[in-house]
Amino acid sequence: MEPVRAHITTYGCQMNRLDAELVAERLRASGARVVDDPAEANVLLFVTCSVRAHAEDRAFSNIGALKARKRREPGLVIGLLGCTAQQYGDRLRSRAPLVDVVCAPGRLAELPQLIQAARTNRAAPVVALDPPRGATHTQPDRVGGAEAFAAADAALDEVETRRPLGGPSPGHAFVTVMRGCDNFCAYCVVPNVRGPERSRTPSAVLEEVRRLVGQGARQITLLGQAVNKYASRQDGRTCDLAGLIEKVAETPNLARLRFITNHPRAMTERLAAVFRNVPAVCPYLHMPAQSGSDAVLARMKRAYTASEYIDRVAMVRGVRPEVAVASDFIVGFPGETAEDFEATLDLVRRMRFSHAFVFKYSPRPGTFAAEHYEDDVPMAEKRRRNQVLLDLVRKVAGQENRRFIGRTVNVFVEGPSPHPNLHPEKGTGSFSGRMEKVPVPFSAACRGWLQLRGRTPGNRIVVFDGPADLAGAEVDVEVVDSSPLTLFAHLAQAM
Ligand code: SF4
User: Fold this and answer.
1) Are residues 118 and 149 both part of a single domain?
2) 450 in any annotated domain
3) Residue 451 and residue 491 in contact, taking contact as beta carbons nearer than 8 Å
């Protein structure tokens, strides 16, 4: 049998991107090659997201498009991994008949064996699912069941601890601090597909951070679905996220530390204080509000009101005023009236978000909302609200970005800009993604410079011309212009 050449396609959040890294590491350790070109692969893997119908549909449609190739190459193995795999389980066969391997997020460490089994026996798909959890959206108080995930978590920890630095950009690495979620927000499948909340021990997290920083990481992002609920209990003592951050920040040579995603309900004064007391912590808080209407928030089972959300942001900005706050919103949630939507717009105006992701509600099977609420906001109205909210987010973000013009900011350089030749004066960096193509200025081009992309401590995107070998470094730049999504700058020191 010829060796495995695997290609990985990833959908969804940072958790999925980290899962894809772990899959790649696990496959390489088993002797497989991970290839960039899907045409070269004999194993095609899809790390899926089932939080939004759109991401799920895209994965199914891309798999469906492989029908002709699968006929030509009967040995081709198609694997569906992650949240959608757990969500559909055995039923996947009818939705995606081409799939040979179905692997839940907690079972990714077993992937090489699953692929091997699928290559040996082509009769039926090989399915590896996480254990069903005790709690459900109708009985969210019956949390627990973490023990059932212990063996799979230990295997994942081992893969995560071994993986080489190769994160989202040079010098930047994601580190899982907790898995699963117990919140059961009415619209969300994550508690079903990723299981109960399990916090990794501080020692496991610290070991991983030290190893990654030792390999050259300067920026670490700690990941959890509701990361500020982190609580590791050992020897009768509990370490919370603030305690973990203090320990992680002691790692020599670690320059920047972030933690995402935060649940407003779990934001405490103790955690807010790390924005002031721990220099490595970036002034960036991703804390989804989802709606500005108390009625909608109650139906979403988010367990806070709009004014409580405002208070939590004020608490953080009270200790560090420059903290950039980013949010997520769902528009067209069942029962969302024009007044409810207006309350969301109000919240955006008041909170001055640096960025916000906006999604149109779609019912997800197995969630409280799908089973108990009528999806009663027409799609045309969802689209309209989506656009109105995006326009407002863009306007506010644009105003906030303009305040940076003329300032010198420190930038962590990610590498060449993925949309090279962004022009500072043509309204680029827009949410619609329309770009004006202009040449790199002659003076920069003749020095062999590229347009680079980096991030401020507050996670704002900055583009500027510079040498490619700055990737992974921190530099000071002078901001000369801005758009809602991007700051345009020059290197502060001549090179
Ligand atoms: S906090 Fe709510 S939205 Fe976030 S993962 Fe958990 S259930 Fe889903």
Assistant:
1) no
2) yes
3) no
Print the domain residue range for 416: 408-491
Q: Tell me if 118 is assigned to some domain.
A: yes
Q: Which of 95, 128, 161 is the last residue of a domain?
A: 128
- To test the ligand 1 pocket, which listed residue (190, 198, 302) has its Cβ within 8 A of the most ligand atoms? 190
Averaged pLDDT of the chain = 90
- Say if residue 169 is in the same domain as residue 81: no
The angle formed by the CA atoms of residues 473, 479 and 480, to the nearest 5 degrees, is 140
393 inside domain: no
Say whether both 116 and 253 belong to one domain.
no
pLDDT of residue 433: 35
User: Based on the number of CB atoms within 10 Å of its own CB, is 121 exposed (0-12), middle (13-18) or buried (19 or more)?
Assistant: exposed
Indicate if the pLDDT at residue 494 is higher than 80: no
The answer to whether 337 touches 377, Cβ cutoff 8 Å, is no
Alpha carbon of 301 to ligand 1 centroid (Å): 10
Task: Say if residue 210 is in the same domain as residue 194.
Answer: yes
Q: How far is the CA of 226 from the centre of ligand 1 (A)?
A: 7
The reply to whether 318 falls in a domain is no
Pocket of ligand 1 (CB under 6 A): 181, 183-185, 188, 190-191, 225-226, 263
Taking residues 15-31, report their average pLDDT.
90
Q: Which mutation among 179, 225, 267 tests ligand 1's pocket best, with the greatest number of atoms within 8 A of CB? A: 225
Spatial distance between the Cα atoms of 286 and 313, rounded to a whole number of angstroms: 10
Matching residue, tokens 């326009």: 391
Amino acid at 41: A
Name the residue with higher pLDDT: 313 or 468. 313
- Please tell me whether the overall predicted TM-score, pTM, comes out greater than 0.70 for this model: yes
**CA 342 – ligand 1 centroid, Å:** 24
Residue 146: which pLDDT band, with cuts at 50, 70 and 90? confident
Atom 4 in ligand 1: which residue has the minimum CA distance?
225
